[in-house]
Amino acid sequence: MNIPALQKMNFTSQCLLHKNKKYTYQDQDIINIVCKGKIEFLPLKYNYTSLLYSLSIENEKFKNIKAKEIAECSNCIIHYTGNKPWNNFCLRAEYWWYYYKHSIFKDENFYIRNYQVMSKKILLDYSYKEVKKIFLLKSATPFPKCYLHKEKWTFDS
């Protein structure tokens, strides 16, 4: 983001003019309206959403349009829209749990309450075929190891 440019255009004030309007994706819709013509779209790997994944496997038209980009998507950022890994099963939840377990914020009781409960729920709620399909999902290339050290991120390739 170009902070000086946003300040110059009174970005916050412009966004607040839309706060009482009804938008499907409030934050993203307002940003797209306020910054119309000034936005460059990033590749999917920087905002891979669970909604995007659902569309890519359920909607044939969408799949054909985005298939190549989705196939080449080695996710850098997974945006958990909708279901969250800590209270429901969702796309690539295993990555969230991996980094949670290795973060300074890990709470063993939270992990046991949520991760193990969700694992049991998956096995009880889904047929074997569906469970197999879910757990075989993998990104095109693995994530690098990354660690949060209070103030900064470090990455290992």
Describe this entry's structure for a reader.
The chain contains eight helices and four strands, in the order H-H-H-E-H-H-E-H-H-H-E-E. The strands form two sheets. Strands 1-2 form a two-stranded parallel sheet. Residues 135-157 have low confidence and may be disordered. 49% of the residues lie in helices and 9% in strands. The two termini are 26 Å apart. It has helices spanning 3-8, 11-16, 26-34, 50-58, 60-71, 93-101, 108-125, 128-135; strands at 48-49, 78-79, 145-149, 152-156. The longest helix has 18 residues, at 108-125. The radius of gyration is 19 Å and the shape is extended. The chain is mainly alpha-helical and 157 residues long. Strand 3 and strand 4 form a beta hairpin. The chain folds into two domains: 3-34, no CATH class; 44-156, no CATH class.
**Which runs of at least 5 residues are low in confidence (pLDDT < 50)?**
135-157
**Assembly level:** single chain
Helix % is 40-55%
Major sheet, described briefly? 2 strands, parallel
Pfam family, one: Glyco_transf_8
InterPro entries: Glyco_trans_8 (IPR002495), Nucleotide-diphossugar_trans (IPR029044)
GO molecular function, one term: glycosyltransferase activity
Keywords:
2 domains; 157 residues; two-stranded antiparallel sheet; 8 helices; mainly alpha; Glyco_trans_8; disordered C terminus; two-stranded parallel sheet
Task: Summarize it.
This protein has 157 residues and is mostly helical. The protein folds into two domains: 3-34, no CATH class; 44-156, no CATH class. The protein has helices spanning 3-8, 11-16, 26-34, 50-58, 60-71, 93-101, 108-125, 128-135; strands spanning 48-49, 78-79, 145-149, 152-156.
